[in-house]
Amino acid sequence: MLTHKHLKQVLTIHRLGTLNRAATALNISQPALTASLNKLEEHLGMSLFHRTKKGVEATLFGQHIIETAPDILSRVTRLEDELALLAGGERGEIKIGAGPVFMHGAMRAIIPAFCKRYPDLRLTLLTCTPRRILQDVETGRLDLGFGTISQAPTRSDIEIRPLIEEPVAFVAAKDHPLSARATVGKDELFSFPFATPDLPLELQVQADEFSSAKGSAVKNCLQTSDYELLFSTVMQSHAISGCPLHLAKPYLKTGELCALNYTGPPVMWQAKAVYRKVSRYSPSFQILLERIEQWFRQAG
Question: Whole-model pTM?
Answer without folding.
Answer: 0.69
